[in-house]
Amino acid sequence: MTERKISIDPITRLEGHGKIEIFLGDDGRPEDAVLQVPELRGFEEFSRGRKGEEMPRITERICGVCPEAHHFASTKALDAAFSTSPPPTALSLRELLYNSYIFADHLLHLFYLGGPDFLVEDGNKAERNIVGVIKALGEEAGKKVIRARRLGHEAIEIIGGHQVHPVTGVPGGLSQGITSEEREELVSIGESAVDFARETLELFREKVINTEKFGSLVDDPEYSLNSYYMGLVDENGEVSFYDGDVRIVDPSGEEYLKTSSAEVMELLEERVEPWTYVKFPYLKEVGWKDFQVGKDSGVFRVGPLARLNVANGMKTDLAQEEYERYVDHFDGTPVHQTYAYHWARLIEMVQAAERINELASEEGITGDDLRTPVEEPGEGVGVIEAARGTLIHGYSLDDEGLVESSNMIVPTTSNSAALSISIKQAALGALEDGMNDDQVLNQVEMGFRPYDPCLACATHSVDGGLDIGLKIYDNEGKLVKEIER
Amino acid sequence: MPKNKKKIGAYWASSCGGCDVALLGLHEKILDLLDFADIAFWPAATDFKYEDLKGYGKNELDLTFFNGGIRTTENEEIAELLREKSELLVAYGTCAHQGGIPGLANMSEEVDLFDTVYKGTPTSTNPENIFPQESTKKDGQTLNLPGLQERVRSLDRVVDVDYTVPGCPPPPDLTEDFLDLLVKGALPEKGSVVAGTKSVCDECSREWNRETIDELVRPQETEIDPDKCLLDQGIICMGPVTRSGCDGSCPEANMPCKGCFGPPPEVEDQGTEMLNSLASVLQLGEEGQALEQEKELLSDLPDPIGTFYTFSLSNSILGGKVSEGGENDRT
Q1: Which domain holds residue B173?
Q2: Which of A5, A424, B231, B296 is deepest in the core (most CB within 10 A)?
Q3: What ipTM, to 2 d.p.?
Q4: Cβ of B250 and A167 within 8 Å?
Q5: Chain A contact set for B166 (CB, 8 A)
C-alpha cells in the first residue's frame, strides 16, 4: 500500500518543536492526523544530584517563554522541601512578578503566536506573524503592543533580576526586594497594563467574536472536546495563578475533586506512545481510554479555558465583568469549545493586570523582611498555574539538600492527548475538500494554537530514579534489545 | 525601504526558546531591524517551513541567529542546512555557544534518559515497556522521529560558526550592540565572541576585599549582604571565571553568577579555573598541604559538576561521562 500523507514540518508560531502528519485515504480525503514531538532534552535525568537550591535556575531552562512558571513552581517546591514559607512581602513580590509574567505571556500569544491567524485576515505565510499584525493594526497600535509587552518584562526584571530567566527565588523567600521608586514604576506599569488588557478584549470582540468567519469558529461544536478540566482556585473558588487548591471538574462541570496541591501527583498517570517523545497524562481513577474524551476517559485539559471552567469566577472586578459576558455568551460553564481558549486567555490577562496594580499598591511591598530561615531538607511539591496550565514540580532532597529524584508535570504534557484530538478535528474539518494549500494547512495548525502549546516544556518533564532494565521493541512490537543495569 | 534589504533567519535546536524571546526582547528596536531586514525563516514567530528553507539558494540568508545545542539528528541536519543557506551563522546564546544546561545530560546515556523519563517516574505507567522509536507503524502508516545523539554538542562542534553572542539568554543590550555592528558593517574578525573581554567581577558593583574564608555556605544558609563580594561571603560565584558583558546582572539581583557567558578569553576551562580561585580564597594552610586540601575540598563539595559546569559541561575538559571514545572532540 502506498502511503499518502501531508507533512507540516515544523509546526510554527509556538514554543518548541513539533510536526503534524496528515494521512489521506485512497480518495484523497484525510483519515487521520497526528502531532509528533521530535525532541527530548532529559532535564528529568540530569536534575538528579544537583543542589536543591539550584533547581529554580536549572528548571526554568525547560522553557524560555514561561521560565517564571518553572522558577516559582520550583521555588515553591523548595519552600515545602525545606519546611519554610516566605514572609508576606516576599510572597506579594513573587505574586506581583508572577502576574506580570501571565500578562506578558498572554499578550505574546495573542499578538505574536496564535493571534496572527485572526488579526492578519487572509494573510499568506509571509504575513501571518507579528510584522503582519503591526501592518494590519497600524504602526501606532503595533507600537502600543510592543510597549505593553516591554513593560510586563520590565516588571519581571525589577523583581526577578532579568527579563528572561529570573534568578531571585530562594527557599523561604526572595533574594532582593524593591525600592519605593521601583514600586512607583510597578504601579504605573499595572495601570497601563489594565488599560491595554481592556483594549485588547475590545479588539478581540471586533476582530474575532463579532465576525462571521471567526465568531462561528469560536462557537462551533465541531471544535469542542467535552473533557475533564484542572486548575487552581483560591479560597473563594476564584481563578488564581500563583497559589491555591487544585480543582478538577468533569465534562458536565460537576466537581470531580478538590485537593491541596501536595496531593495532586497521586491523581495522575502518564501513557507512553512509541511515535512521539511526549507523554500523555490522564486521571488515574478514570483511566486511559485511548485518544477520546468524555466522562469515561481520563483525558483532561488545563490552561485558560480549564481555569475558567473550574472556577466560580475571577478574583478582580474588571476581569469578573468580562467573565460574566463570556459565561453569558456560552450559556454557562463548562465551555468545551476549544477556540474559546483565546477568549478565556484575554479575560485572565485583565485579571493579571489588575493584580499587578493591587499588589504594587500594597502597604508592605517595599519591606525588607524577605527571607524565612530554612529547616532540614526533605520532600516538597510546588503547584502553580503557568500561562498554559497547571504546572507541578515535586522534589525529594537528601540530607545534604541534593536532589534524589524529581517529578515535573507540565501543562502542555497534560494537554497532549487533547491537542492530538483537536488537531485531528481541525485536519478533518479543514481538508474536507481535498485542498492543501498554505492557508488550508494553516487551519490545521489553528487546531493546536488555542492551547498555546509549549513543546519544549512538554518533553522535559519528570524524573524518578528506579533501577530497572530497558527493553527496546521494534515497530511490530518485537523485542530487539534488552539492557540490564 | 532601503535597497538590497537583507534576509535574516532564526532557529532553535536543543534549547528552551528563551533566546527567541530575547530576540523579541529588542522590543521597539525590532522595528529598526525590520527596516533593515526581512525575516525569511523563524519557526517561533513565522510560518516558513523546512521546505521553504530547502528552496533557498546558498547563502540566501544574510544572517541566521542559531540558538540551542545539537542533541538530535534533526538538530544536526538543520544546522548543516542553515550553514549552507546563511552567509553569516551566529551561535546565539549559551546552548549554541557552550551546550548550555541541556549539556548536563552528557553525564547520562540515552538508555538512562529513556529509562528515567518513560519508565522511572512515579506517574509513568508503562508495563509494556513502550519507548519512543525512530520509526513506528501506526494503523498501517509510518511515523518517523529523529534519533537522540550520544551527547549534546555546541554548534561550533558541528558546523563553522562566524560569531557568538553569549548569555542565557543574551541580554537585550548585547543583542542590540551586535545588530548595530552588523548594520554599520563593523563586525569584528570572524570567530569572535561578541561580548566583553574581561570577567564578570570587572563589571560587578560589589565591594571585593579579597578576603580569605573558612568555609563555603549556600545561599539559603545565610543572609546575603547585597554590597559585599559573594565569594568574600563564602558563596560560590562564578564571576571570576566568566566572561563579562551582562553588567553582573545576577550578583546585582543578590544571587551568585552561574557562568552562562562561558570563560573569558584567557581561560580555557571554567571549572578548573574556578577551583583554583576557590583554593586561593579558602584558608588552605601551608604551601604543600594546599593540594591535599584542595582535593579534600573537592570531595566534600556537593555536586561539583553542577556547580562548576552548569552551562559548559559539553565543552569542558571533562566532556561528560558520554564522551566520544573518552576524548574531547574539539574541532
Answers
A1: 6-101+150-184
A2: B231
A3: 0.92
A4: yes
A5: none
